[in-house]
């Protein structure tokens, strides 16, 4: 090693160590409530790991009743491996997070041939909010195998460069493993289809590239056939179809172009660029519409929503720089030589769009674009340093360092807010921007009070709570509806909640008549207590007190529901009932008051009865200020026994004339035999 290279290598090692240290600090040390999973996906996967560790067989055990999400159609491959390892899922996430950072370093080093660029890329990636959210200690799922995607790209790149089929086959086998693990492995087939399309357009496709495409397709489909096509989602169908059609188009284009030339040949190539994806989209749409994937689920819903501005942080601002770097490097013209660069850009373009459906793909987008951002930043800094003279050189050096350090600092601040924000179950239906500091959960406390006494039970609740219920109770507990389960189960939940007690009870008894299941029903809502009435006030308003000013500047106090009452319109619509039977919109002054604009029929629903009765049992008088200033009166349930009710303070709303404490409220009832 040359002497002048030693300082560069030393600085690079320091930066990569700093990247790993910042990551571990943000993803573990600063995490609030480490043992409470954050995203709803994590609740399910942690439960699956515990399920296998208890020695239960990998059978067709369904977590939804009667026909719902089965163990065998869930992405359980990683869960089985983690269960066998005996390591906590959170530590697996951290290990794979460290692997991801190192993989980004290696990829960047291969692209830029500069350890400083690679180290800068790693530290930018390690501080990005999206990466910190999905790879912090209290999150875990099949998506955590994402770093292996970069390994596959490296194997493909090196295999094509050296013409070593062993490397290519290893990449294909690893790709098939990712396909079965359901950790976005289908992306590889989609990206490779783009690669084949570009090779076809440029007329440089060779037997190596085509053989890899055919092998990738054949091995993935063969493994799926062996497991009964259980892990095929609509995304798998789309990517597999795109690759198959791309290979077919390549053959057809080569055959057709032997007889035509000029503008006709160009037109044929342009059609070939679009045709595979148009066909794949149609095939995937038809498969989804006709339910041609009966043994699989489409996706597992997440708690987090995709927010590009926040998720990408400074990476989003520098994306244009990455595009400029890519254009100047002429990556498209370097295909097939620059395989790695082309596939990374393809991944970035695909993932920033598809992340709207699968938010965890945002991490892949960041990993794919960060090497080019770091390369662009260091190239600009280096150019300014070399072209400047005298004191100007030092000025530009300081500016370049400030840009890099400022980028890392801004990313870190955004990620810090993620690390220090408690789990989503603490907020439930209330947006975090409204309830900024909540360190308890009414849902968890309600479940805790019955934990260990439930046994073989069925829980009926809003389907967004299902993974929380199954994950926290961690036993042979079924839920009636799930975000990824059959729509018919969601309809049944809605019908039960929107019917009167007798009809709801008959629906439940009909549902479980041939089983020995205990049945529980859980409802949750946000309530407000008027503190101006005294510290011991026993009058509560449904909904969170909301203060705002009208156009004339007059202060207005209204109530906004966050919970089961807020879903009244959704429940009625899914049930097939008329919304106008439950809602009298004439009561509403503002749009957010519509769910509280009840008709007389709404007062008779099981939903209202369970919410109001639970509060009455706690000694509260309940008011729906939108419907009436008089207390709500409901009869005590006959077929439902209150077993747990909890309230947890969330935040205060106050001014000179009013003061309210907003609470999260949850009640659990047991259905009588």
Written overview of the protein:
The model has no long low-confidence stretch (mean pLDDT 83). Helices cover 54% and strands 10% of the residues. The N and C termini lie far apart (79 Å). The radius of gyration is 28 Å and the shape is globular. It has 673 residues and is an alpha/beta fold. Helix 1 runs parallel beside helix 19, helix 4 runs parallel beside helix 7 and helix 10 packs antiparallel against helix 11.
Structure at a glance:
The protein has 673 residues and is an alpha/beta fold. It is built from 25 helices and nine strands.
Write the layout of secondary structure elements.
Elements: H1 5-29, H2 40-53, H3 77-85, H4 89-112, H5 115-126, H6 129-134, H7 147-162, H8 165-181, H9 186-202, H10 207-226, H11 234-256, H12 263-289, H13 308-312, H14 314-317, H15 319-329, H16 331-334, H17 339-354, H18 361-387, H19 391-419, H20 442-450, E1 457-460, H21 466-473, E2 477-479, H22 487-498, H23 501-511, E3 518-530, E4 539-542, E5 544-549, E6 555-560, H24 568-575, H25 606-617, E7 621-623, E8 640-654, E9 659-671
Helix pairs in contact: 1-4, 1-5, 1-19, 2-3, 2-21, 4-5, 4-7, 4-18, 5-18, 7-8, 7-17, 8-10, 9-10, 9-11, 9-12, 9-17, 10-11, 11-12, 15-18, 17-18, 18-19, 22-23, 22-24
